[in-house]
Amino acid sequence: xxxxxxxxxxxxxxxxxxxxxxxxxxxxxxxxxxxxxxxxxxxxxxxxxxxxxxxxxxxxxxxxxxxxxxxxxxxxxxxxxxxxxxxxxxxxxxxxxxxxxxxxxxxxxxxxxxxxxxxxxxxxxxxxxxxxxxxxxxxxxxxxxxxxxxxxxxxxxxxxxxxxxxxxxxxxxxxxx
Length: 177
Description:
mainly alpha
């Protein structure tokens, strides 16, 4: 079952967080295994599955990145095995950052580390600013415009994942300095 349908909320990248939490607690009470301890094994198994579904739905819908990944997968936008394409200009920019990081490996410079950190943070902020209007208007879109929005979100998601790997490398450098 689709998590948004389970929670009776519209599919959205920016859903009502309180509605998610409220529905999670409602379903947690409804599907609590202790209430079904005297039922037959089939019923107990079904309740356990529903309880697990509720937990997975809450975990996914309450986390912005997992929610984005979930929506993209539900629409067949993310391919398994890394065949997702990132725009070439972005990859070139990231390649430059990666080369600067490799240089730090051999000749550490705290100022250069800070500069690379600022670049990646600035790029991340720009990505978020650019995608926010798409995320906000997504629930109202239909047809081709919805597909275009999903494609924009997919590109953002892939770029963000790439940037997060760079920021993870930066944090490793920061702990060594």
